[in-house]
């Protein structure tokens, strides 16, 4: 990717060459933040100590941060603790634990958050003691941290801690603590029972939400015994609680829940609940729910309509494919239509050839690259479409997006049980061709196929040198995701331990403090899209490196005319990829900044391939997504135009992004 020059926009603050040595022992690095000459604070980083703390966080320098935990001023103790929440170094646990009893409540909360982010089970005793103490304003932080660090043994303490409490903060804290443990797979029957009890509408909203998310997000639960309570929870006055409870209802192993899901899919006023109801439906209840699902394919919300089409693709049985073809042809939304066409081809029947031909004709006539991609995805349900998809994937001069969808479709076709044995060798050569293409998405997808033991490609391609050759042509950190895919494949095929990911160090792209100095604490951004305008507010105090990078790209016009390439109903709308398929990046990576922020509705986060690999892609959440908390940098919040964000779909354009007052 071409590197863009720095913005020539004048700066409002200038920095001297050095920070006073008394602020931090040792000499400052060449990129150390420097003392401003201006007197008016633009944001908290007008303070030199805050810049030093943020720089140490960015450099993952625990040693530099630890002295600040005992600083006389509470604001620096708090900042250092929050910095350690991003560093996540267990050697800081002993230094953080005393701050749970700090005189300043904000420091207590920051320490609890940092301990939870570190996930060190050795902090359980201190956290449990804090939970058992007199309730404070930071009660939820202590419970959540305990949940993040809990083992099955300490989970019992978490379950007991709030069981007899009438304190609303304790009830909410316990619910969210159970969620944090549950997301990690740490649960028990007592924990599940307690979460169900917290769904009672007499409990505070925060407790009900936390409990509903606990039951929705904890893996491998069988909630059949709690059907009645979950059904009641789907009538909660709060739509977010209803949506999460509806997801949890899908873990009831009883087809008798079908009428409740049908009612929610048809009548709930919030589209996110309707999406959850459709997702909770499964093959065992296909007959009783299919009419409601058919109705949902024409729902006013495109997200609901798509989810309904996905239900048929996943669960349709006993139907003729021609029925889905006829219904698809009546729809105007191309994404919903293409998904139903995939269902038609998957169900098949005597008209399967005609269905395949109809999809191929639509592909030829389509002009939108994303629609073309979805039609190739639809064709992946039929082995007979292999040659058509292969030609489309490698056609010269087409948008990158088409090839990206095409290579995924080819691998999906190969995984079909009726893929002809006679074509196995040809498929292997196609994967080798993709690896040699130089296209990072084709290479990544081919690499994943090569290490799939079910495909047995090693037998057909014994010489692995072509993978090494392809890997060595990648440019880091720009092509990090492709590098990861190829290296994982080489390690797997050579029976070697996993190679650590070469995460870029702070020195390769340090925080640009000159840019940070130009960003007001309440800086707004106007995002103009083909669906309407969205206004976001940047969190420069919580994520200075991420915000500075975003602002630099905005000033360069980097995001103008990009697309939203990924939209998952009731989850996220994601854009900012220079390729338009999710594989694009800048030629630098950022370090993750896990400030004391949560993924509520309209949170704006940076996409990544793992900690400290963020770049230019970002996403907007449709609803609270607590399983993302502390794992993906939040750098902004939608403050106006959330109704537009809910309507975004794949292929919608980011017309321009601009900084506004």
TrEMBL record:
<keyword id="KW-0732">Signal</keyword>
<keyword id="KW-0413">Isomerase</keyword>
<dbReference type="Pfam" id="PF00160">
    <property type="entry name" value="Pro_isomerase"/>
</dbReference>
<dbReference type="InterPro" id="IPR029000">
    <property type="entry name" value="Cyclophilin-like_dom_sf"/>
</dbReference>
<dbReference type="Pfam" id="PF13646">
    <property type="entry name" value="HEAT_2"/>
</dbReference>
<dbReference type="InterPro" id="IPR011989">
    <property type="entry name" value="ARM-like"/>
</dbReference>
<dbReference type="InterPro" id="IPR016024">
    <property type="entry name" value="ARM-type_fold"/>
</dbReference>
<protein>
    <recommendedName>
        <fullName>peptidylprolyl isomerase</fullName>
        <ecNumber>5.2.1.8</ecNumber>
    </recommendedName>
</protein>
<dbReference type="InterPro" id="IPR002130">
    <property type="entry name" value="Cyclophilin-type_PPIase_dom"/>
</dbReference>
<feature type="signal peptide">
    <location>
        <begin position="1"/>
        <end position="30"/>
    </location>
</feature>
<feature type="domain" description="PPIase cyclophilin-type">
    <location>
        <begin position="532"/>
        <end position="649"/>
    </location>
</feature>
<dbReference type="InterPro" id="IPR004155">
    <property type="entry name" value="PBS_lyase_HEAT"/>
</dbReference>
<dbReference type="GO" id="GO:0003755">
    <property type="term" value="F:peptidyl-prolyl cis-trans isomerase activity"/>
</dbReference>
<dbReference type="InterPro" id="IPR044666">
    <property type="entry name" value="Cyclophilin_A-like"/>
</dbReference>
<keyword id="KW-0697">Rotamase</keyword>
